[in-house]
Every structure is written in structure tokens, then in C-alpha cells.
């Protein structure tokens, strides 16, 4: 049976959406709590009761992410808008199946205290609101450019290493491919071409911070352990459940996941902590300095194409992989994955999300 109705005003439209979202979230919350309890042997999920009365973003499908405007419910009215709360707990930090610098220290058991975390990457719409309110000028604008991905030609591949990366003058968070480009149709995508300092400035505007690497991984693993965390993310039907590269990197993307390049936030199902895109789409800044071996098999050092006059900054940990990670290159579409990025180098595959820690 279908029901036909007509909304007579914008207020009525938003009211209807709010009612639908409330019902949907109540069902989702109950299901998430039950599933997490079952997976943890009946233990309380880190996705806890503080989330029950909150209107969370209704995402998880192509239809929902496409129509999402990029601003969570009660944006700027609620200091925790768009966030979920995770109580503290222990988890295995790292992976024995990934790269050398992902190996756990000892048994890997690590404790994190409770915190709030954004359900999605910070969007262009959210960052634009920050810039409008504060007049902030990003590092990419100050530096006069950013590192941008493009599919290289055969000639480019033969001419130089890392031919898919180019320093584009005039590229910035609001000019994603360079001068003349804009954010039309992209306000619901992750903001990229932001440095760690840009991400911190946004976070502090809201009274928040960037996650530590341990906090990020605790949230990304969502109460799970085991080898499944280190395989390419696919759903029960075998379809990719995140935005990463299928095909031959960097020349052929078969688009099996439905997106070439960045996708809007929340196009794929959330993890068991109701967090979207913890794997793929855009790498995410953390507040931690990178340490560990510098492997020959890396994500492709974007600093190699930056201007020679640019000073090299501290390498920081980024997490989660991006739309560029593939089976034959990078292989970092995993919660335990980690990579380094110079703190002040803006790039087209790196964004962030924020946290608000519980009072100690």
C-alpha cells in the first residue's frame, strides 16, 4: 500500500523529515545495541545510552547520501551535532596481518577513555560554515596550491614516478581541481585539501579536537577483532561496502563501488558504532606524530610533487584509507591501516573528523 501526501511548507517538510528520522533512529539504535551485544558476548556496547535520544544523521544508502545537504541536524544549536558517544574500553591496537608499522606492541591491548566522535567526515558544508563565521584562510590558500590526483596518461607514467599526483596552483578546499572549480554539487562530500592545522582550527572552533590514532582505530574497529578487519570491505552480496579503488591503479577504475573519486559522506552502511566511511573515501588526520618504518610500498608520497622551495613538516598519522586504495596498490582500506602525511601538506584525498573527550 502506498500513501500519497503533499507538504504545504518548508517547515512542514522539515517536520516530516524529523519525524521520519526519529523513528528510523530509534529502530537503528535498538538494532545496533542488540547486534553489538551479541557480537561482544552480551557485554555493553561502546555505542551507549547517551545516544538514545539524539537525532543522528540518516545515511547509509546512495539515495540518502545524495540528498544530504552536508549539515547534521541542529548544526550550531547542539554542541555535539552529528556526533555519537562511545564509552571507554580496551581493544587490540594494530594488526598482525597488515604492514610492518601496523604490528601491535606486545599483545596490543590498549585502553581509551570515553569520547564523542563525528558520524561522518567533516563536510564541505561544515567547513564552509566555519570559514564564513571566522574568516579563516586555509593553508592551501596561503601556499597557493595543493596536491591533486588525476588519472595519468601512458606518457606521464613513463616520464615520472607518482605520475598521478600533481601540485596544482590555485587548488584549495573550495577550488578542488584548481582555479575556476568550485563546490557546486559537492557540499555533502568530505572537505579535503586541508592540512592538520586547518583541521585543528575547525575542531577548536567547536570546542573539539582531532582523535588520537588509538581513539580513531577504536572507533573504526567498532568492537570487532579478527582477520575480517584486514580484508577488502564488501557486504553480504559481495558488493564493495566502502569507496576504494577497484581495478588497476592508477589507470583503470572499474567503478564497482559506484564512485570514481570522492563520494558524498554516508553512501555506505555505518559500522556498529553508527560511524560512516571509517574505511575509504578520504584519509583522516589524527593528532599523532607518525613513527615506524618508512616502507617502500606507501600511499605515494605527495610531498614528492610539492614545490622544491617548500619546507618539509612533521609527518603525522592519517587513518582509514581513501578512494585511491586498491588491491594492487596501497591496500589500506582497513581500520588498522596507517600512513604518514606531512602536517602542512594539503592533498585531495585527505579529510578529517573531530572528537570531544569526556571530562576526566
From TrEMBL:
SUPFAM superfamilies: C-type lectin-like. Its EC number is 1.14.99.50. Transmembrane segments: none annotated. Residues 81-355 form the Sulfatase-modifying factor enzyme-like domain. It comes from the Bacteria. Keywords: Oxidoreductase, Signal. Pfam families: FGE-sulfatase. One of its GO terms (molecular function) is gamma-glutamyl hercynylcysteine sulfoxide synthase activity. It is an enzyme of class 1 (oxidoreductase). Residues 1-34 form the signal peptide. This is Hercynine oxygenase. The gene is egtB_3.
